[in-house]
User: Fold these one by one.
Assistant:
Number 1:
Amino acid sequence: ASTRTVGSRLYSSEIKKCTIIPGDGIGPEISAAVQKIFAAAKVPIEWESVDVTPVRGPDGKFGIPPAAIESVNRNKVGLKGPLMTPVGKGHRSLNLALRKEFNLYANVRPCRSLEGYKTLYDHVDVVTIRENTEGEYSGIEHEIVDGVVQSIKLITEDASRRVAEFAFQYTKENNRRKVTAVHKANIMRMSDGLFLRCCREMAEKYPDVKFEEKYLDTVCLNMVQDPTQYDVLVMPNLYGDILSDMCAGLVGGLGLTPSGNIGLNGALFESVHGTAPDIAGKDLANPTALLLSAVMMLRYLNLNKHANIIEQACFDTIKEAKYLTGDLGGTAKCSEFTNQICEKIAAAI
Amino acid sequence: MASRVLLKKPFDLGKIVLRNQSTMSAFEIQHKTPLIKKVEAIPVALYGGRHAVTMLPGGGIGPELMGYVREVFKYAGAPVDFEVVDIGDENKELDYALTSIKRNGVAIKGNIETKSESANVVSRNVAIRNELDLFVNVLHCKSYPGVPARQKDIDIVIIRQNTEGEYAMLEHESVDGVVESMKVVTQSNSDRVARYAFEYAKRNGRKRVTTIHKANIMKLSDGLFLDTSKRIAEEYPEIEHTDMIIDNCCMQLVSKPHQFDVMIMTNLYGSIVSNVVCGLIGGAGLLSGKNYGDHYAIFEPGTRNTGTAIAGKNIANPIAMLSASVDMLHHLGHTQHAELIQRAIEKTICEDKIHTPDLGGSAKSTDIVQRIIDHILQSDIRP
């Protein structure tokens, strides 16, 4: 498929250019941390930093500056820090704008329990793949009669098929065993029924991957009792949003979960936590989420050796629990945490 | 109890009603006191001192659980007669069930399977809720002390809009390969649910009501729901009102569920959150839900599972259905019978710790039911 042709272009040892969007709040410091770690691991990547603060376009509307769009279109791969969507009218959500601009159709969020950070749930290893463009978030709403509002959930065959194919391909490439389609087709028969049909068709094309379909309520019930029974989950937009956040909660919150958005002609990897303005600039932030997203980016670019080294260094640092940032219950600074990881990488190379 | 009073002094009942309004059961308040909307009182299905209640067993584990309910009622001596109605996919059968519920006013049901997958046939459960206008579903999630669960000491009430929202079942295929499904949110229904929630909080001494929504994305529909909640919150200044986005809520529920008190939300989010909280407390077999409308009430297990995989194997957890029957007895006014059965259930699960496989034990359903009956027979107080 299209995603693989992008990767194969990068087999040579040339330096790959990637766009990095530092973001707001703690964004700049964690982006700097990630860049430092990548330099220590000698990753063949050259960063191109862009700013996506909305500017007023010629038509008066706020939009992403064209320089940023050009950069990501050229490089095809990007890493994004947390963005603050300012409150106010006449301004679209930046995340939504980026998504539409680069046709990012699937959102992948692997949630793995971190050794060294104990939560109520152990051995969680779930990947949620969510359709990113349509579904309940199509934004089509109107007030038909006074006091009656209708919101439309749109499901198309193309989008469902795309995300189902991506899910099975991801499962196969990452040596995972099972894909579960999450739906509510007993109630929303036509819409979720269509999504389910597309998943079933794809399942036939990948006979070595196990496929099952479960109702949303059953998945929620079972996930909270025993998350080890699920492997890869694929679902439409709204269910994906809720379930991916719930899985993140099982492993320790949004500050530890990576996330990747795969598009037709590129990919954008991001950290999904907030900008944390209260600790911005104080060197207290935890770069784990952005770092793990960057590792996902390396895997997407087929730089698996570097990805494994960096990931292992990060997990070992958290497991040792000597240098943990405030949100993980420690007292270390962001720079100390970063230095520890760099030391481990230097030892591994 | 109301039935005894009726038999002794039928004509004085009116005076007693006015004097004893505070001690009347919910059923009597519903049928004997004038409603704000000036609706005519429906005659109570009270024949010879015994209430008549519709029973809809449904599919899967439904019929066996209903059998257990009847057995327990027999031993507890609860004055309730059941009218069993089975529903298939035909509209005629659905109409008959609805007529029966309208006649009796109260029903207890399992989860009904709608065998047909065609888009023209509305889910039977949704059809019953919509036709009878059961606009609110209340799920009181209280931890049982002896049951193994991820979280302890949870006491959350989930109040969920039951008829519209994402379950409006209005779908169409506008173009080949493009399907639209409508989510409908109305001012009047949101108003009724919010008002019910705050009244419930006030009457039961609850401190905080949280509205769960996704109004940052679905600005008009969830925005309307949220604004209605906020507006009604102003009429109850002693109750704190907060709101939270559904994804954040799910994340908080799996790590810190004790911050929630009463939660109010639309249909789909209610389904998700109730399943999450049931999972935290120990599973689908423990909690019961109440569906209320202006005239009718239906009681059912909280997570609405059919349980086809475990049907007939004698391992289904009967506690949910028995809790539903206890709620029903409370609603009808038979408080002493209700408390008797409730105490027996609690003794069986919390003290004797006899659990079915879904709770990690190895007992059969019949063992649990037998132990509950034993507790009832040994109990000192039996009317």
Note: DSSP finds eleven helices and 14 strands in chain A.
Number 2:
Amino acid sequence: MQGIRPPILNGPMHPRPLVALLDGRDCTVEMPILKDVATVAFCDAQSTQEIHEKVLNEAVAALLYHTITLSRDDLEKFKGLRVIVRIGSGFDNVDVKAAAELGIAVCNVPAASVEETADTSLCLILNLYRRVTWMHQALREGTRASSVEQIREVAGGAARIRGETLGIIGLGRVGQAVALRAKAFGFSVIFYDPYLPDGVERSLGLQRMATLQDLLIHSDCVSLHCSLNEHNHHLINDFTIKQMRQGAFLVNSSRGGLVDEKALAQALKEGRIRGAALDVHETEPFSFSTGPLKDAPNLICTPHTAWYSEQASVEAREEAAREVRRAITGRIPDSLKNCVNKEYLMAASQWPSMEAATVHPELNGATYRFPPGLINVATAGGLPGTGTGVDSLVTGTLAHGIAPVTH
Amino acid sequence: WSMALMDKHKQVKRQRLDRICEGIRPPILNGPMHPRPLVALLDGRDCTVEMPILKDVATVAFCDAQSTQEIHEKVLNEAVAALLYHTITLSRDDLEKFKGLRVIVRIGSGFDNVDVKAAAELGIAVCNVPAASVEETADTSLCLILNLYRRVTWMHQALREGTRASSVEQIREVAGGAARIRGETLGIIGLGRVGQAVALRAKAFGFSVIFYDPYLPDGVERSLGLQRMATLQDLLIHSDCVSLHCSLNEHNHHLINDFTIKQMRQGAFLVNSSRGGLVDEKALAQALKEGRIRGAALDVHETEPFSFSTGPLKDAPNLICTPHTAWYSEQASVEAREEAAREVRRAITGRIPDSLKNCVNKEYLMAASQWPSMEAATVHPELNGATYRFPPGLINVATAGGLPGTGTGVDSLVTGTLAHGIAPCFQPELPLFFLFFVVLSFQ
């Protein structure tokens, strides 16, 4: 209930709350920002099965990348979680609705990799049009092009860009950055985005298409820049591919789940799609030797790296750590900067009636949760065994717990 | 100087002397009374694009040669126009083998493979086609730059070789070196058509763009909003990524060499889609191995065709190479060939160099045509009164309306073996002072 969901316990009278990095091992960037208000642990897990029980019981905040999934069942394993922060922009790997129902705010970091992703998307598009990646590969394999006829052959398929139409699906931060770069090359840029308010197309001088089909029909190259949600899984499938132009290009630096790879492979083999460049895949890590794409021609693939630069990585991690800090030292969700499930949290907190009978009996009078498996009782000023522990990486085995508040 | 020239090339030059005199250099013989002049594609086999434009005014042949040694004697003797790509070189010695050449048209923009000065001295105009591949080359250059910064080509290659990146730490490792672009400085050497197109594209990514171009007049930098550097060294010092967009000439061979590489920033990138001769590959290889240059992307090389397994770059790391394909798209290729054929047509049906649209050695031609004095004594005795050449090895005499053996030949590709020759025009010997009248009557 609004108002009875308490802030995370912190301050000199309480033990430091536990913050856990779920699917990584390196907390060096996060530590300086969090060490005075939290204990930071890393799990290096690929699923919640691999997360230590202590973390499941005691973590109040979780940091994660895109390589672990948190379904409703996964979320229910956590007993004290109040906030989840995605170190990155996409949060489709977290069931944000279920999290809200469990009183857990979910946040992301939407800004750090916008330009890196846009730059890589343009690199993928240009590699499809100018064929640099494939020709470099051919040279590595020993191809020699002596005469101009041989040059034309090895470069065959390289196309003029001016006058081509680039269709952007999803004109968010990355989509807009891609649109503006593409204009510089002479692309006609059109987009489809059912969530964007009227007028953004006027700001940037782009043409808006009313339906996905309209966009697919008019595009020579389609680039996906929308997040993955319950409505757009396999957005690019056998049916929609057939609405695309014969010989169109497809680029995906967003989420693998948007594309039905079986349908894409078939279209590539038949030449209905002339080439595809994918940074993300239905199953990651991607391998050319397995999966539906393994025999598909005219493919360029990278291993979910469009977002990466040293600077973007550090920026995202620092911002995520700061969001966790805001959660710990402030109020949830009011103090959060990038909470993505605020509406669901507010809705979940509204009781249909305030009658005691409708309140879960175990909750009656208890405004704080009692984490099961309570281990230690807090001592004033600190926890036994912490010492200088907070300055170093804490391993999966925790030595302290979070004290409950008795009522 | 004409005497010195004759002394130097005496045996070969007799047929050329008419060209050295301004005004007595005749237009290419053409028209219903003359056989069609011979146009030869030197280093290719496909003339299908050129044919429709030239067939009514010329005979088109292809040589498919990699050097002038491979060119048939008939072509050397009779071609008045030559078309060529970048894969054959025409040095002074090569040019002297041609007996009737009046115009050379490069199907493309770079003409460093032709000695344009020597050509002018021999009365041969050299033209190029500067516009067709400007955007293709700029787009490919940006693709090369982005592949260095975002590492798509190398990561695709790693995936092909079986690398798997499961965790974010592994992703950071396989992508290690991928850098943020905004705030980086791109230094463009040569702000011509391609350099300008690259500059404007690069700005969209957040590059700070600077350039060095010693030939460009003041003010172009203001038009495009770029920063101009006064010296090459200034540019190299301030650039995170250096991209070459200048043509190759006698002054800039190995522009990028051991010394200038050391003026570049530690860990800078280098991109070359211009000419291989601008870069000393031995020095580049060393810099790549030592990491002084973080990565290089090259569409052109000192020796082409390029191979990763030979040459100074064969063990160099962090290389992206393509086989001189930056210019190519189907449309650009056809446009360039059509424009080249039209330039040949202008040469044949009009005046050289006045009718030419993209003559690159006009100044040299004009200079070469000025006689220091008009005294008869300075004119080579054999030239006296002879305004037209007599090609050696005369075969056929022209018949009105066409040549024997041509038939429908001009509509099909003519092979290296020619079936017909170009007939000479018979001229009695005339005193020099009659030359002007002769010239006027033939205009």
Note: Chain B has 18 helices and twelve strands.
